[in-house]
Amino acid sequence: MLLHIPEVLTQGELTQLRQSLDAAGWTDGRETVGVQGAQVKRNEQLPDVSPLRKELGQVVLSALQRSPLYFAAALPLRTLPPRFNRYQGGGEYGFHIDGSVMLTNQSGAPHSHVRSDISCTLFLCDPEEYDGGELVVSDTYGEHEVKLPAGDMVIYPSSSLHKVQPVTRGARLASFFWVQSMVRDDAQRRLLFDMDTSIESLRRTNADAQAVLQLTGIYHNLLRRWAEV
Question: Which of 116, 132, 170, 203 would disulfide-bridge 178, Cβ 3.0–4.6 Å?
Answer without folding.
Answer: 116
